[in-house]
């Protein structure tokens, strides 16, 4: 049995070291035949660096490495090209000076590799000189591959001024590529996010964006067929539907794909865990959500336009854009409205949805042990069908948040904050949660389902209430529960009212409704 290439992004090591490999070389051939300048963004841990390295090996003419792969007999191996490989994946760049130092180190490595001498002092000048010298020395145009092109900006995304300085440094660097067009054979930039061409690529506005091109939807990630064929000998005893529920679902306008990192770690350990999510913490997203008072349950059915899903800039940060590009949301469906496109987004899979909600709670609760205790009690209350315990469980949660946190955040003054907390706890435990559940009589704030039990929630903040009806009375009068009368064996209506002044639950009413199910 072969080994799992966990964390390996070097093609030669994978192919020569006895590791499993999903052949992406047909897309190498396709891309190089269709154009010259390309850009693609994918979430972290999706195999972007491996694809970059595959291109590098192909252009350098290392035919022996591709034995048995598609490219072996579908590539002109008589042509070899010098390759400039720029990667910002390693380390953290804290400012413009460190960026310039990193670029200088990269060019010194190329200088040593190709036995040339660069005389220029600035990074842009060195880049131009490198391209021209390589083209002259090898009598071939140069291949330029940039991996994690955006990471220096993302390293400083919470500091606007430094992020802008770093952006200008990268903009200066990338502008050289177009200026040297006559000496460029091929160019690909990869990253996690897509910054606007105006802000970062004004000098390189001829990049063809493949991010949502259906022909390249599977360029990174594993398809269901990949999993069933390449890893066939590893699948004995594996529930493929459960594997799909946990880790598949990333949609880039084509066949949905798995995150490779998740698949490899699961097949290695045979244990379902939040592997991908745990490799980085979305603290910046939490800050952005709190600042914008975003209603967390809305992420399950978020709609956005083409401009927001496409690109952003450091001083114009949109939660929907960042959530999609970083992999916390994916495309559910697309609707055309005349000349416009509307995208409906969703969580890609069970891992991301539960992990994101759990992390949201970690961000709000300083005492991790208390959070875990609350989750344990809530899980028991649901699985044992004891909704009357919900009140004390959530009351203790809100009581545990320090007053200092509320002084720093005005978020507690709107209804969505409290509903988001309830939502996060239930989702983090893996229960089926439907926010803004549509019925014939209106929308339920939140429905929680477990096995044959249904809990219908209505939330209100008393300082914001205009009508006299309580939260429970609204459920009763609008007959929200009728939707589940024939489905649920156990059906509870729960009205929860909060006070932004007391910062806690002030009313919690429960009514059990007799089900029609026998």
Write the layout of secondary structure elements.
Layout: H1 11-16, H2 25-34, E1 37-41, H3 48-59, E2 83-87, H4 96-114, H5 123-138, E3 142-147, H6 151-154, H7 160-179, E4 184-191, H8 197-200, E5 208-209, H9 224-230, H10 240-247, H11 260-269, H12 283-291, E6 302-305, H13 306-310, H14 319-325, E7 330-337, E8 340-346, H15 350-364, H16 368-383, H17 390-400, H18 403-408, H19 415-428, E9 432-439, E10 442-450, E11 453-461, H20 471-478, E12 490-499, E13 504-513
Parallel strand pairs: 1-4, 1-5, 2-3, 3-4, 11-12
Antiparallel strand pairs: 6-8, 7-8, 9-10, 10-11, 12-13
- The average pLDDT is 90
**Biggest sheet: strand arrangement:** 2-3-4-1-5
Distance between the termini: 51 Å
The CATH topology of the largest domain comes to Rossmann fold
What count of helical segments does DSSP give? 20
Notes on the structure:
There is one protein chain. The chain contains 20 helices and 13 strands. The protein starts with 10 loop residues before the first helix and ends in a 5-residue tail after the last strand. The strands form three sheets. Strands 2-3-4-1-5 form a five-stranded parallel sheet. It has a five-stranded mixed sheet with strand order 9-10-11-12-13, with helices on both faces. The chain has three domains: 11-216, 3-Layer(aba) Sandwich (Rossmann fold), CATH 3.40.50; 223-364, no CATH class; 368-513, Trna Endonuclease, Chain: A, domain 1, CATH 3.40.1350. It has helices at residues 11-16, 25-34, 48-59, 96-114, 123-138, 151-154, 160-179, 197-200, 224-230, 240-247, 260-269, 283-291, 306-310, 319-325, 350-364, 368-383, 390-400, 403-408, 415-428, 471-478; strands at residues 37-41, 83-87, 142-147, 184-191, 208-209, 302-305, 330-337, 340-346, 432-439, 442-450, 453-461, 490-499, 504-513. It has 518 residues and is α/β, with parallel strands linked by helices.
